[in-house]
Amino acid sequence: KQWYQRRVAITAGGLRLKVLRLCDEMQSLAKHGHFLPPDMQGLTEDQIEELKLHDKYEKICVPQGGSVECEDPIGRRSGKAPNESMAEVIMKTITDAKEGVSNKIAAANKSLTVKDVEDCLDKLKGAIMIVYPMKLPPYDPVQAEIDNCEDLSGTQASLEVIEKEHGSLWWAGKELMPEKTLEDYIGKNEKTKIIVKLAKKGSSAPGREQQMTEEQKKQMMAWQYKKQEEMKKLHTADDGDDYYNSKWANSGALKNQFQGIGNIKWGPS
């Protein structure tokens, strides 16, 4: 059923965005440690001491194997980062997860199922459990994503997320209505490949896919430039006045030869 395919596509797309958000926050976690309490973020050490603020999770959220000092330049995280080996666990898992939900999968004519994305999500959660067995503060974006209580309000990410009930599929500038099947739009040929885009209900049709990739555009431009240079050379060779530069076209060649000045070249001494 088309309505079922729509829900699956929206679910997979939403989980994929979640994986990418989690990867970004885990990268910051690996570099600068856990999230500071909201009232301590962006403050200097003197300001924190003056206001008598305290991070109650500082002694709880200690990474496995201890921490190393690495100050967060924007003051969002504690600066107590995991050691090199634990940071490597996080970064390697991030790389694997990004590859698991990469656009290259579709380019290779492979499908990305909900289970595939969930597996990537489970790997990311497992890496956090290894490095931070005592968990992270509940206000840390990484922990919030893991607990499915992330607050995306006011962020760019909130504009990208589409709820199951508010999503629609588009193809060839047409919205695929849930009460119809794909056969109503593309016919009975089961081998037909179509590219469908997700959009929010009530929005205008999303932009069409590019006909050529960036690499194909570069190759075409290089080919056009080569052809243009070849045409210039042909045009010069076919020019009717080109023979004027030939020795046999010189009307004074015989006279110069008798006078012995046929091979004289002018130039600096």
Strand content: 5-15%
Query: How many helices in DSSP terms?
Result: 10
* Rg estimate, integer Å: 33 Å
Distance between the termini: 89 Å
Average pLDDT across residues?
81
Widest sheet: strand ordering: 4-3-5
Percentage of residues assigned to helices: 40-55%
Unreliably modeled segments: none
H and E string: HHEEHHHHHEEHEHH
The 3D shape can be described as: flat
- Classify the secondary structure makeup into a structural class: mainly alpha
Number of strands: 5
Question: What this model shows, in words?
Answer:
The chain has 10 helices and 5 strands, in the order ααββαααααββαβαα. The chain is 46% helix and 7% strand. By secondary structure, the chain is mainly alpha-helical. It has a 3-stranded antiparallel sheet, covered by helices on one side.
